[in-house]
Amino acid sequence: MAAATDGSGAANGVRGGVTEAAHLGDERTTLLGFLQRQRDLVAWKMRDASDETLASARMPSGLTLHGIVRHLENVERGWFRDFFAGQTGLRYDATEKDPDAAFRAEGVPMADLLAAYAAETKLCDEVIAAAPSLDATATDEDGTYSLRWVIVHMIEETGRHLGHIDLLRERADGAVGEEPSAGA
User: Fold this and answer.
1) DSSP 3-state assignment of 105?
2) Which of 93, 98, 38, 89 is nearest to 67 (CA)?
3) Do 9 and 24 touch, CB atoms closer than 8 A?
4) Domains identified in the chain, total number
């Protein structure tokens, strides 16, 4: 029975409240499991801290925990819904005049940012689910990309920002850790 719920079999599971990618899954299942794991870890890293604590850490560049979450929401929207699905009329925080606006979220509660990020990822998951295969493509002025490439890119993008989150969270309150315990 455990194999059906903990990711140790062919289906993605959950361990410690975070997605565990299927250990024996097919390519699509495994990639989506790792993408969701990265997304889940963003929220997990923000747990048990006040907005004031989370906002207290800032890199010299101005990068903050709140700003990273807002950026991740925007980049998911950009790659999956705008680029891949061709949806129009989408709202972004960055503008031509202020391309870094998506990294700023001063005064926005982390709970609101995480809720917006989760809502966006659900919309992006609908785009992924509607694609006939990982080989489906989209094209822009930079080239043609498969859904597989976009998913792997988003795993890389989110994972890279999780490294920033690790450092900023440690700076904020000393909290460290890379993975929820299976018993959590």
Assistant:
1) coil
2) 93
3) yes
4) 1
Return the structure tokens found at 17: 């409240």
The pairing of beta strand 13-15 with beta strand 137-140: unpaired
Q: What are phi and psi of 65, to 5 degrees?
A: -60, -45
Question: What is the per-residue pLDDT across 69-118, written as a single tens digit (0 to 9) for each?
Answer: 999 999 999 999 999 999 999 999 999 999 999 999 999 999 999 999 99
Q: What is the CATH number of the domain that holds 28?
A: 1.20.120.450
Contact 151/128 with Cβ under 8 angstroms?
yes
- 95 falls within a domain: yes
pLDDT over 60 (residue 1): no
What is the residue whose two structure tokens read 């785009």? 127
Say what the pLDDT of residue 182 is: 53
